[in-house]
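Pilot study result, target chain (349 residues):
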Amino acid sequence: MEEGAAGRCRRGGRHRRPVRSGAARGSADQGGDHPGAGAGDPPFKKSLGELKPTIRERKQCVREHRQTLPVQKACAVMELSRSTFYYRPQKSEAKQEEELRMVAKLKAWAKAFPENGIRRMTADLKGEGFRVNRKRVYRLMAEHALLCKVKKRYVVTTDSQHGYGYYPNLYENKIPDLLDRVWVADITYVRLRKGHAFVAVILDACSRRVVGYEISDALDASLSLGALHCALALRVPAAGCIHHSDRGVQYACTAYTDLLAAHGFRISMSRKANPWDNAQAEAFMATLKKEEVYLSDYETLEEARERLPYFIDQVYNRRRRHSALGYLSPVAFELKQNQEAQARPYVLT
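Predicted structure:
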């Protein structure tokens, strides 16, 4: 009996583990406690050499019987090592093809939006249906040299030493839940190869959308007034909307404050030398510089006037995702806001 059991442990001259004695095996065959032992052994043990199943088929057979047979026992029956059964390839062909598709999209987006970071790229990939996290996106961008590099320049554009009055900070960075409740305004400097330009913008504090802007080579009241006229042509906020800016003379002058008062705005200004009081407008200016101005290197004012509107209207407002907006663009966020407002039941007061 023992010689027969020993013979069953050898195939092709290979040495295998010693098996239990015949008496022990016989007791197990007569109703041992181990599940799947004895009579529960698969009937194909003796014919396995003739069938010659592939490793894939052996692994599949072990998976199918692992509820009734321990993995160690099933692997021994199938002449399969446990390390082979548990092995999983690092990257399947499907995963490699998926990464190639992701890299192609990342390269296209990095070319169109060179300053988009990992979070926005991850949101874009998820929007395309890929199941991916930030760590994987970072690895792919690092491997293909797609991580953004930012240059920094700074020119003072705020002149608060003037004879006009100042207004208290009514905004206090309390982001509203509805559109056209707070507008924030700011001015930035753009260096050109031949000269310079200034850009004045007005944003809706709820959606971060640029509702008005003006580009000029003169830093005077006409610059800020041009942005305000542009915003009023697009939107008609209700009386009581807050207009927040810094203390610059362009926003404190009589022509500008009179126009705000005529349209029912409540005027708000940041504290002295405190850019954090106007954080949303400052953040947009940083985005404008990093994602457009520093990468374009405009030569003339005409070129800046031609390309900046495209970035503001088509890229920033309509396509650029914002983490604060749930990774929606400002236009998409406003559309969602309007849809939710229409779905909200009307209550008589």
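One observation from the pilot: The chain has a mean pLDDT of 81. A full batch analysis is planned for the follow-on phase.
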